[in-house]
Amino acid sequence: MVDALGCRINHVCRLLADGVLKGRDQPPVVAPKCSTTGSLFQVVIECGGCCQLSESPHYIKSGERYKVNEVSGVGARWPRTALLASMTLIQLVWLGAAWLTGAAASWWKFPPLIVYTATVGFVIIALPTTLELKLTQLRQRLAARPWLALLVLSLVVLVVGLIYASYQRPWPAERRSFTAAKFILDNGLVQFFDSYADFRWLGNQHPPLMVLLDALVLRTFGVELMVMRLTGLAFSIGLLLVAYLLGCELYDRRVGLLAAFFVPTFPLFFRLGPAAMTDVPVTFFFLLSLLLVARLRPSPTYPLDLAAGLAIGLGLVSKYTMVMIYPVLLTWFVASKRLRTVKRYLIVVVLTSLGLASVWLAFDYFNGI
Asked: What is the pTM of this model?
């Protein structure tokens, strides 16, 4: 058994060495020789000059000897196990408190959710080391092919989103948006804007961009709520791509992939994403604006200014909370000490975005909305 494990880890070590050193200007490297010393969980890797292996989170550097952290014994796993156990316990306490206090009307949903949380927590904590190594290899392969990883993630979001879009109950905001979009189809844009103040939910709270887009989609593909929900799902998939690009722009490709994979972990992502609402579209425009403005820092150009201003403006006429982008950008450039360098470009961004939004705000003002 020990010999079998040693051979397997030897194979993993060779793959890791090839993957880490591929494409780098390194001298020829002798393939690592793995040997078991003492016990099943004490594996030492002899790496002749493979100093780059220290970049892998599964290895600890010690001169020219590297020790597999995840299989070096119970002690090396303890910090991670304690963290996962604490997270599971906090979730269980929160669910139990909500169940016992009657904080939610659907109390009968809590027992199976508590069982599910405890089961998943135990499975993750007890995950075998060999499986962790295989998952690490998979993660490294996906990191080497980011667009393939994004494609797989997008397909998962598409399939799960279609299920939610098909079966979830309509939100109150969806019904109102569908009514307003159908009104445009039946009566035209002129009548819609003349009656805009009569749509109390819409007139007092939301700008018209998403309703106009929904009406266009309904006219093209059919008057069904499901059609509007597909628009929200498209924005959800676009959000993954923008999150990846923003992470790459600010840090590196690995951070970009992590950002894209973390987006669907938001608890309401699959409830709000495939829904005819404004939350996901305004988030998409918010991140797109950050991405375009981030590209101003190394090489500011006026076309990029106009694109960033247009993205912010579209966000403002999607949902008014997009206005929070301005303090975020100001704080960002002040903290990075680049405000003086890009000040005139940021002025163009602000004027472009406010110019687009002011058209709608002027209409609001003169029509008493």
From this structure: 0.70
